[in-house]
Design brief:
4 strands; Alpha-Beta Plaits; 4 helices; 4-stranded antiparallel beta sheet
Length: 97
């Protein structure tokens, strides 16, 4: 059985929408909040973008639904636009439980 680990790095404002999406699909996301390195290294002022922009990382183990999630992010959440978010999945080869 093929499993995927789906990872979405999003703006904090979109966090609740992504959580609702995963829960609707009966997935149990893990949320991690953080700040980009630009704020730590003060690059935000140098390149004129807000370095303290908070993001949330949403991680959900799923099967082939990963493609559907990516399509939703692209079409409904505008992930193709700069600064809107990034999502990807990787194969999980070994796991138990």
């Amino acid at each position: 059985m093929s499993r995927k680990l789906l990872i979405a790095i999003i703006n904090e404002e979109k966090e609740q929408e992504v959580i609702k999406l995963f829960k609707k699909a009966d997935k149990h996301p893990v949320c991690l909040s953080g700040r980009g390195m630009a704020s730590v290294m003060n690059f935000g002022n140098l390149f004129n973008f807000p370095g303290d922009r908070r993001t949330a990382v949403i991680v959900s183990a799923s099967r082939e639904e990963a493609e559907s999630f990516l399509q939703y992010f692209r079409e409904k959440m505008n992930f193709d636009a700069p600064g809107e978010g990034i999502a990807f999945y990787i194969n999980i080869d070994g796991y138990i439980g």
